[in-house]
Amino acid sequence: MQEKSRIRQRLFQQPVRKLVRLALSLIFAAPLFLSGPLLAAEESKNEEQVIEGLQKSYESAVDFVADFRQETELKTLNRTLKAWGKVYFKRPGKMLWRYEEPKGQWVLADGKSLYFYQPEQGQVLKAPLKNAFHSDVPLSFLLGIGNLKRDFKVTLKGLEGNQYILQLGPKGESGGVDEVLLGVDRQAFGIDWARIRDPVENVTTVRFSNMRRGAGLNDSLFRLQVPDGVDVVDMGSK
């Protein structure tokens, strides 16, 4: 457990530009199996409709809450980290990831700053949200500050059961992300799972469940509450 904690802490103590990579790994997780066939030529005509459907789905939802399960394969360290808990999003720019495992850990964005808390470290790491999440980072879409067609190269890759498979590639700088695959529900156009691969082949994969949109989340949920005896370490803008 201490070694896993040190791994997470080392990742967070890099410059804020690289903080994006960890934040993404905290967001997306669950093994992905692309067993469905590739789209037939006539079905590929629906690519624009799928992209538009997904964009409208998230633009129409002011907020949502869901359970998540996460798995991150750190290839360079030959380790797999697993986590689960509940996530809360509110447009624009607010999110809270409360972890049941690792117990007591959380990640918070209040619209201005990003905070990461590990109880065993006794500190909260802070970074400016605008520096941590650029428009070419997939999380900006979920936070309601991004646009699929504007910020990504989007391709409809195929069908898997009742889900469209979308591939998102970065425009310009990758922000530490090489490829993103999304499983999008064919009826509701919600994101059921996502898989992220970075340039050094680390793979993070999140499966969302029990998603509830329009939950009426109060802004107070996204206000920083520092536990007693815990220091806030400002990572700055570098």
Helix-and-strand structural type: alpha+beta
What's the rounded overall pLDDT mean?
Answer: 75
Shape: globular
Level of helix content?
10-25%
* CATH class (first level) name: Mainly Beta
| SSE pattern, N- to C-terminal | HHHEEEEEEHHHEEEEEEE
By DSSP (H or I, 4+ residues per run), the number of helices equals: 6
Looking at this structure, what is the CATH superfamily? Lipoprotein localisation LolA/LolB/LppX
For the sheet with most strands, the description reads: 13 strands, mixed
Tell me the domain tally. 1
Weakly predicted, low-confidence segments: 9-45
Looking at the overall shape, the CATH architecture is Clam
Termini, distance in Å? 29 Å
What is the number of strand segments?
Answer: 13
Itemize the secondary structure elements and their pairings.
Layout lengths: L1 H11 L3 H12 L19 H14 L2 E12 L4 E12 L3 E8 L4 E5 L2 E6 L4 E6 H4 L6 H4 L5 H4 E9 L2 E8 L8 E7 L5 E7 L5 E2 L2 E7 L17 E4 L4
Parallel strand pairs: 6-13
Antiparallel strand pairs: 1-2, 1-11, 1-12, 2-3, 3-4, 4-5, 5-6, 7-8, 8-9, 9-10, 10-11
What does this structure look like?
- By secondary structure, the protein is of the alpha+beta class.
- The chain has one domain (2-223): Clam (outer membrane lipoprotein receptor (LolB), chain A), CATH 2.50.20.
- It is built from six helices and 13 strands.
- Strands 1, 2, 3, 4, 5, 6, 7, 8, 9, 10, 11, 12 and 13 form a 13-stranded mixed β-sheet that branches.
- The chain is globular, with a radius of gyration of 17 Å.
- The model is unreliable at 9-45 (pLDDT under 50).
